[in-house]
């Protein structure tokens, strides 16, 4: 029973993150009718910036989070301006191929610059762990689960 409850908590928190990503894809497709394959790569750029801001610029959590959001937004605007805007009146397949190309460019460019080794994101906030019915969960899991429902 304890393992089942733990997996339910883990599934809800991970599923909530997937829901946020799906919401982003849906909003982009609903507005510009383009499946942006670089959507997840823009999240990756924000995550790398947050890693850099915390480890090398010594930002605390909130400034690193805010600066990562700004950097992700700026990279999205730059990608739209350079890659997608010139293709507004072209066939949809051209924009789709460009989206795949931008995704490959970002993934391989970051792999070339930073290597393919995994990095641990630093622990910058204290987390409180709760135990209910023998299952442990952290407050950040509660935030992940509740955020997509606002």
UniProtKB/TrEMBL annotation:
It comes from the Bacteria. The chain crosses the membrane at residues 12-32, 52-81, 93-114. CDD domains: TM_PBP1_LivH_like. Keywords: Amino-acid transport, Cell inner membrane, Cell membrane, Membrane, Transmembrane, Transmembrane helix, Transport. Its main location: membrane. It is a multi-pass membrane protein. This is LIV-I protein H.
């Amino acid at each position: 029973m304890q393992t089942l409850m733990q997996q339910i908590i883990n599934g809800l928190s991970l599923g909530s993150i997937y829901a946020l990503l799906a919401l982003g894809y849906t909003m982009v497709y609903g507005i510009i009718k383009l499946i942006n394959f670089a959507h997840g790569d823009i999240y990756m750029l924000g995550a790398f910036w947050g890693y850099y801001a915390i480890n090398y610029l010594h930002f605390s959590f909130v400034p690193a989070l805010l600066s990562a959001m700004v950097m992700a937004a700026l990279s999205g605007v730059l990608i739209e301006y350079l890659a997608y805007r010139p293709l507004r009146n072209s066939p949809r397949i051209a924009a789709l191929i460009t989206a795949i190309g931008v995704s490959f460019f970002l993934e391989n460019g970051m792999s070339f610059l930073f290597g393919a080794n995994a990095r641990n994101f630093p622990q910058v906030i204290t987390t409180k762990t709760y135990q209910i019915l023998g299952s442990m969960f952290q407050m950040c899991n509660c935030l992940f689960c509740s955020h997509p429902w606002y």
